Amino acid sequence: MTNAGYISSETAEEFNDKKDHSLTAEENWSELPHLLLWMIMEHLDFVDNLRLAAVCHNWSFAFANCPKKLQSAGDTLPWVMYPRNSERSKLVFISVSKKEKYTIKLPNFFNGTKSIYSKQGWLLLQRRNGLRWFKDSLQRIKAERLPDSVFLYNPFTKTELEMPDIVKPKDPYAGSFSTFDGYPHYVVLLEYNDPTQITLQIAKPGDKAWVKYSYNGQSMPYSGFGGLHVLGVHVYCFSATGGMIIFNMRDQTWTELPDLASRFELSYMGEHEGEVVILQVRNLSSFRFFRLNNAQNAWEELNINEVKNLNWFLGRYTCFSAKSFGMKIYHLYGELEPNDRLFYLNDQSCGVDVIDMMDGNTQNLIPYVLPSTATWVHMA
């Protein structure tokens, strides 16, 4: 006879067996092999991967140590990223294909910090550190700009890689980096305030200083920034008029390609599977595609069939997609700055438009205004 509120010895044994079995099942579930977890992660997007990593300690550890090619979004399109106005230490990511929004805390991201490049889930961030006030020999008060801080951050793993400060920074400058096994390798900064000379600063994560290289032998002025990419040992500097200057980091030589002879008004440079590619647009109705033949240092025009299953990330404001969603161009729109041939946003606000390259129709993807600090980020 069992007293009320008690369990008989036989029932207790059964209960403990069930409890032990339940704990064993839970332990087995939380200790899935990392290889299996990586196979799952490979098919998830940015948000779902972060949710998976938050399930338990083992899954978080697996995520933080997964092959770097998996530490990115499975989404076929870049994401839109911008800092929250009310809390500058938080970033908002938007998937325009899935209409999902995700907010993530970034400890070093605050007012004055911006993303200047992104690749394979990594963000290259620049932070202005303000001014230093001092008195000169005549006791006059003067201001000197403090060095800018540059660092790399992976919002998937929350890994930060330090870079040297930029001493005596000169605006404007752009940034880019190459990757090796999914990690940032060579980081390159481009100064282009002087049309007769371009200056590159190159370093690797963990270096103590930048190495500077300058070039002023171009036959045509570097007329406006059009793009910067680093592939292997080559740095590709693209101008707004379609010219290209290539720097070989191994032998420290410069190669200049002529402007792309074209009626087209806008040129966007990107990289795709180790190749430099160009999209040219006129009046948002006529389009041409090119890729760089490195062996001949010449552009090859591509036909529609050669790009119909590709996605190109073309910079902070534009991307092209012909995979899964049809032949379309996505861009963050805003008022054009004077004398610029590319889309540069004003200081007000922007939105996301998609242009169908087949029928010419334009559609607004996000039904609310984004801050002008919004940029595309390459999370795949």
From TrEMBL:
Q: Where is the F-box domain?
A: 26-59
Taxonomic path: Eukaryota, Viridiplantae, Streptophyta, Embryophyta, Tracheophyta
Q: One of this protein's Pfam families, by short name?
A: Beta-prop_KIB1-4
Question: Matching CDD domains, A to Z?
Answer: F-box_SF
Query: What is the name attached to this protein's record?
Result: F-box domain-containing protein
Q: Which PROSITE patterns match?
A: FBOX (PS50181)
